[in-house]
Amino acid sequence: MKLMKENYFITLFLGLSIIFIMSVVFSNIVSTESEHQIKIENGDSLWSLADKFGSHEPKESWINQVMAMNNLQSSHIEAGEVLIIPEIKETFHFEHETELAGDSR
Asked: Bridge partners of 87?
């Protein structure tokens, strides 16, 4: 106890470090899904956007979701349009897997 009182800055540092680590862990435990707006640029397609912004779900599923969110009748998009896309934040987990080339989920 005497050591902690004499070195209060170490105790304070350790306490703040634990609080910081716990806040990072708790903020990343739950997967949250929200909407995000993007402006379409020349050369963009829903397929390329699925590559860029899609999660681990199949590209066709992501494209269908974007089309439904934006009331699109076809997959044709034009430069200058603003689209709403799902933004997925990855969940924090303790799984340690090795994924080999060619493995599919």
From this structure: 34
Q: How many residues does the chain have?
A: 105
SS (H, E, C) 78-95: CCCCEEEEEEECCCCCCC
**Burial zone of 66 (CB within 10 Å; 0-12 exposed, 13-18 middle, 19+ buried):** buried
Contact 78, 39 (CB under 8 A): no
Q: What residue type is 8 in one-letter code?
A: Y
| CA atoms of 3 and 39, how far apart (whole Å) | 58
> Residue 39 is which amino acid?
K
- In tens, the pLDDT along 14-47 reads 889 999 888 877 766 654 456 788 899 999 999 8
Strand ranges in the chain using DSSP code E only, listed in sequence order: 33-39, 82-88
Residue 83's closest CA among 102, 103, 69, 98?
69
